[in-house]
Design a protein that fits this description.
By secondary structure, this protein is α/β, with parallel strands linked by helices. The protein is built from 13 helices and nine strands. It has a single domain, classed as TIM Barrel, CATH 3.20.20.70. About 40% of the residues lie in helices and about 10% in strands. Helix 4 crosses helix 6. The longest helix has 18 residues.
Length: about 300
């Protein structure tokens, strides 16, 4: 079978009998952001951080891209939970398509799972719906949604034991609801998935529309992971996200002088563990304990 064909859902598959459901997570009753401190995954360009003791001591979860791990002959052994990012935005923005076949990606994810360990979840090869990405691929939102659902089904077929995270895509609330329906038609009940990524909202995260989308999907009982959420966005929807990840700390540090204790060690703290941990602590401390205060902040 041609690799590219795996990203298309044949009509018989849409109408197929539902697959066996995966069990809900142990902490499925968690309802808001501060119940578990592992909610914010720190994005990092440095896979070696997975083995650094300062992250393991406080169980600070990390997010590492497939692009940073692929091709390495040796991999770090994780001392803290982490999630795998598929580098989807980079793939589509640079190439207008996925150049990594699902076979290759599934095999890589299996290697990371076995050799690195402590993998919480791995993002599928989803298709973002930002205007710039649609312009690059030449496809429609509906096309991207079908390919996103197909990716989850393909990867589950190739290795169902890995913690694949399905992703919903769209631009408007109706788009996301339609994407949820596509999963349902394919036999996937997203309310039974441990966590579901919500794509293409990171650049809209400060808007009323993004808040409405997340609130609606959250109210359906779907545990959401927010890709690339910054402090301002989290203050609006933190109580409705199961988890999130961010590289904002690094982009912030690149344009600042290094921390006092880092002067002379590096020009900026864009790859500094101390800065990353301090940024995450400040982020978590900035979120009110009362969800109602989050809504009015």
């Amino acid at each position: 079978m041609n690799d590219a064909a795996l990203f298309d859902i044949p009509a018989p598959l849409i109408n197929a009998q539902p697959k066996a459901k995966r069990p809900a997570p142990v902490h499925a009753d968690r309802t808001w952001f501060a119940d578990v401190d592992r909610v914010t995954y720190l994005g990092t360009h440095q896979p070696s951080w997975l083995a650094r003791p300062e992250f393991g001591e406080d169980c600070i979860p990390l997010c590492v891209s497939h692009g940073r791990l692929t091709g390495r002959t040796t991999l770090p052994r994780a001392v803290t939970p982490w999630m795998l990012d598929s580098r989807g935005f980079t793939e589509l923005s640079q190439n207008g398509r996925w150049t990594i076949s699902p076979y290759t990606y599934a095999a890589a994810a299996r290697r990371y799972f076995d050799e690195i360990g402590l993998m919480d979840m791995c993002a599928i090869q989803d298709w973002m719906c930002e205007d710039e990405i649609l312009a690059k691929t030449g496809l429609t939102i509906a096309d991207h949604q079908l390919k996103t659902v197909a990716s989850f089904l393909n990867l589950m077929t190739l290795d169902s034991e890995l913690p694949w995270m399905p992703v919903i895509q769209g631009r408007t609330l109706d788009d996301y609801l339609r994407c949820i329906d596509l999963y349902d038609q394919a036999g996937v009940d997203l309310t039974l998935e441990p966590v579901v990524g919500i794509g293409s909202v990171c650049r809209l995260q400060q808007t009323d529309e993004a808040a409405r989308i997340i609130e609606t999907v959250w109210s359906m009982g779907i545990r959401l992971h927010g890709f690339g959420f910054k402090k301002t966005g989290l203050r609006r929807v933190a109580h409705q996200l199961y988890s999130s990840d961010s590289m904002a700390w690094s982009y912030n540090a690149v344009n600042r002088a290094p921390m006092p204790e880092c002067v002379g060690k590096h020009v900026h703290c864009g790859n500094c563990p101390k800065y990353a941990i301090a940024w995450r602590n400040a982020l978590l401390n900035s979120l009110p304990d009362d969800p109602q205060l989050l809504l009015s902040a």
